[in-house]
Amino acid sequence: MPLPKPPSRKGDLLKSADYEAQAAPRAEKRALKARGAEAPTQVALDLHDGGSALAARTPRQVAPAPRQVPVPAAAAAAQPATRPAPAPLAKPRKPRGNGPAKLFVLDTNVLMHDPMSLFRFEEHDVFLPMITLEELDGHKKGLTEVARNARQVSRDLDALATFTSKDGNLDPRIGIELAQTGHREAGGKLFFQTMLLDIKLPTGLPPGKADNQILGVVQSLREQQPGREVVLVSKDINMRVKARALGLRAEDYYNDKTLDDGDLLYTGVLPLAADFWDRHGKTMESWQQGGNTYYRISGPLVPALMINQFVYLEVPGATALYARVTEITGKTAVLKTLRDYTHAKNAVWGVIARNREQNFALNLLMDPECDFITLTGTAGTGKTLMTLAAGLAQVLDERRYTEIIVTRVTVPVGDDIGFLPGNEEEKMGPWMGALDDNLEVLARTDASAGEWGRAATNDLVRSKIKIKSLNFMRGRTFLNKFVLIDEAQNLTPKQMKTLITRAGPGTKIVCLGNLAQIDTPYLTEGSSGLTYAVDRFKGWPHGGHVMLARGERSRLADFASEVL
Q1: What is the C-alpha separation between 425 and 486, in angstroms, rounded?
Q2: What is the C-alpha to C-alpha distance for residues 168 and 164, in angstroms, rounded to an integer?
Q3: Is it true that 266-337 and 351-563 share their CATH fold?
Q4: Both ends of the chain: CA-CA distance in Å?
């Protein structure tokens, strides 16, 4: 039977008369059986128009399609061809819980830490005290990351505030749908504090302090809505302690954490079981190519492997196996043996690997197919020394890159020493003491050259190393550069994204850091930009990660790392 006429307006509903007109019986045909007197089941549709606000949540009526009725061929040919009605959009995500939605009261530091935190609470509602808006207004000036985040939050709040009621006023009792600005993952509402709440706090807490006012708001909301869970979300540890002391529910902001536990971070290294050859030897294929041995394996180990992950097997009395995963296809994986950088003949700019993990790291650093590498480990594991040696070997010897660019975050360990004189490179000089120390070590590796030869080599090396500030990286593009980002654990995920996206064709980026030495406020092992990059890039065919475990600086440094 021909389809009914399509709706004339976008998002419009077909009327029952349209169906009846198409399904009406012909005179020469027998009459249809009487329809049931019961009303058809009503179907709720949730349609919206492109970038406009979501349609009202009240269900609309849709008439069901009638039974197919035979139509003569001549009548069917006379009917014009019509296109089908547009299919409805995907249904919104169902809430996880069956009870009432929680009400999260956000502290100012949460919004300044993550400007998208308003849309991270799924089906739950968000409440902003008026003192939070006042503090946002006080921190929006400046060029710092906190000021930029405060301005971003203000723009988002302004966009949400435009969705008001029909009379143009904002009804504080109804709230604002957070999904109206295009963030479909947010299923809750936003509420503003528009009236003075009855705040009852202990006399020991001064009411004029902003933190205490937010605590009073949380306590008043809990009394006004006893059947609903009210939760304070803050990055301030002391504020969460005070809230729990008052019997209020308080939580940290967890959405910025890549991992809940730093011990779960991807290490890039996987030890093989002692019976590896017995379990995989029967179906294994092996061949040699380019001086390396390849093994194609299949079995229960394959699902646990990732591209560019290192595997090793050390059994007493047998030859050790050190390999890297180069290919995973279905239920099979290909392992490629490594180049032995622990031998002096394979030294990189005079540097040889002293342990297993350093050998893994040098294999990644010298691989031209690896564009992004992350190295983590405690102090003295050789991260900076190996990276500089690999960079100099590929810039001066192999001419693979044009120069080395070194940068780091300027976060002081102690008190700030103030402004530094000079140009960009001179200002960054005091922060690059580790670079100078490692260049001094690399200059001693060439014992055959005399004093004049070493001086000429040092001048050549210095000319190929450029020190850049992190503050001037936005908008730049690095072509055929070897970029070294030191102390990357102090970077936020946003800063890490800014740096990595600077890479142009033929550029390699190496990030070094120790997650146990984070100096940036509000950053932890789980929320660091280095952790974020390691977790997101694992398994990428052109990226790799190695966690260095053994220190090689000195016996004093190794012992201090363990006991202090």
Answers
A1: 15
A2: 6
A3: no
A4: 83
What's the topology of domain 103-251? Rossmann fold (3.40.50)
Of the chain, the percentage scoring pLDDT greater than 70 comes to 74
Report domain 266-337's class. Answer: mainly beta
The tokens for 18 are 């349209």
Total-model pTM: 0.69
Task: Give strand pairing partners of 321.
Answer: 313
Exposure b/e, 12-31, CB count within 10 A at least 16 = b: eeeeeebeeebbeeeeeeee
Question: How many other β-carbons are positioned within 10 Å of the β-carbon of residue 218?
Answer: 25
> What span, in angstroms and rounded, lies between the C-alpha atoms of 83 and 85?
7
Q: What percent of the chain has pLDDT over 90?
A: 35
pLDDT tens-digit readout, 324-352: 999 999 889 999 999 999 999 999 988 99
- At residue 130's C-alpha, the angle toward residues 124 and 133, to 5°, is 90
How far from the centroid of its chain's Cα atoms is residue 436's Cα?
Answer: 33
Superfamily assignment of 351-563 in CATH? P-loop containing nucleotide triphosphate hydrolases (3.40.50.300)
Question: Any residues with CB less than 8 A from the CB of 31 and at least 6 apart, and which?
Answer: 25
∠ CA 66-68-71, rounded to 5°: 125
Instruction: Sketch the domain layout of the chain as residue ranges.
Output: 1-85, 103-251, 266-337, 351-563
342 in helix, strand or coil?
coil
Strand runs labelled E in 397-473: 403-408, 465-467
- Summary mean pLDDT of the chain: 79
Contact between 391 and 466 under an 8 Å Cβ cutoff? The reply is no
Looking only at Cα atoms, what is the longest distance across the chain? 113
Q: Which amino acid is at 449?
A: A
DSSP, collapsed to helix, strand or coil, labels residue 280 as: helix
